[in-house]
């Protein structure tokens, strides 16, 4: 919720669900890596490819959060934050992937 001119304005920002969008690519790279012989040059290449896929997701998340936090700070004078125990939410196996993605 955002405070503007003594009126509470609430804006909901959609979760981009970056892991869900790239999940198929990560699964394919992980499968390719698992099929490679341990210690081989091709395994190293597959490992690098998988790492790049994970890094891309991490960079997309960082970019989204940076742009969002920058916008919130620029547009508002007062910001109120709620603290959540995300580690406890991550213990729920039905929510863990979605919470981790956020």
Shape: elongated
How much is the average pLDDT? Answer: 88
Sequence of strands across the biggest β-sheet: 1-2
N- to C-terminal distance: 18 Å
Write the layout of secondary structure elements.
Elements: E1 2-4, E2 7-9, H1 18-35, H2 41-75, H3 86-89, H4 96-101
Antiparallel strand pairs: 1-2
Provide a compact summary of the structure.
The chain contains four helices and two strands.
Report on the architecture of this protein:
The protein is mainly alpha-helical and 102 residues long. It has one domain. 62% of the residues lie in helices and 6% in strands. It has four helices and two strands; from the N terminus they run ββαααα. The protein has a two-stranded antiparallel sheet. α1 runs antiparallel to α2. The longest helix has 35 residues. The radius of gyration is 19 Å and the shape is elongated. The two termini are 18 Å apart. The mean pLDDT is 88.
Observed structural traits:
single chain, 102 residues, mainly alpha, two-stranded antiparallel sheet, 4 helices, 62% helix
